[in-house]
Amino acid sequence: MEVLIHLTAGFLLSFIGSLPLGVINMTVAETTIHKGIRAALFVALGASLVEMGQAFFSVKFTNLFNENPNLLQTIEWIAIPIFLLLAIYYYFSTPSRQQPQGSKKSLSPFPKGILVSLINVMVYPYWIFYGTYLAGEGIIYRTDAWIFIFSIGVLVGTFSLLMLYSFLSLKIIERIKKAAAWTNKIIAFIFLIFAVIQGIKIGFF
Q1: What is the number of structural domains in the chain?
Q2: What is the per-residue burial (b if ≥16 Cβ within 10 Å, else e) of 55-94?
Q3: Which of 37, 38, 54, 77 is the most buried (most CB within 10 A)?
């Protein structure tokens, strides 16, 4: 029963937490549109494995973060340039299913998933908050074994939601093929909005 509780808690929190538009699910959607669902699957797998580790680290060291609030503030500041860089990258990148001859080879899907998940620094406050809450309520236990089981639930939940994004983006693009040319510009605009919102949140603007 305890195993099921830890798995379910990790699954639900990661699934719900990945629902809003963000770095990872936007990358999965973009990969699906331009390279197909198989490539998106490997992006999702790489990202999910990293989030599993991020969740484990955050829950295990919640006390460290809670005792040093400046660490969380630093993470929130780092998020702004990351969003801006992603906006610039997507704005100037050219969507194409096939690489032109002689063009520079892009990052393969699995490492791409790992990278986008690593730069998704806003995941840490999320898992620190819920890790503290769940442990405080006695829903999960903060021993390595139980946190690992919880983190497996996180992996499955994140992967499930990302693949849902992938299937939905594929269905949408099948209906509106002409939108593919504008996809990267739209994603760039969304990341720019993320940067502005994050700046307002921490009082930068």
Answers
A1: 1
A2: bbbbbbebeebeeeeeeeeebbeebbebbbebbeebeeee
A3: 54
How far is it, in rounded angstroms, from Cα 183 to Cα 90? Answer: 9
pLDDT per residue rounded down to tens, the chain (205 residues): 899 999 999 999 999 888 877 788 888 988 998 888 999 999 999 999 999 999 999 898 887 666 666 766 676 677 677 777 767 876 776 554 444 444 445 679 999 999 999 888 778 888 888 888 888 888 899 899 999 999 999 999 999 999 999 998 877 766 655 555 566 677 777 767 867 876 777 666 6
What token pair was written down for 36?
A: 């197909």
Task: Establish if 204 belongs to a structural domain.
Answer: no
The tokens describing 18, both together, are 């990945």
> Is 84 a member of any domain?
no
Whether 124 is in a domain gets the answer yes
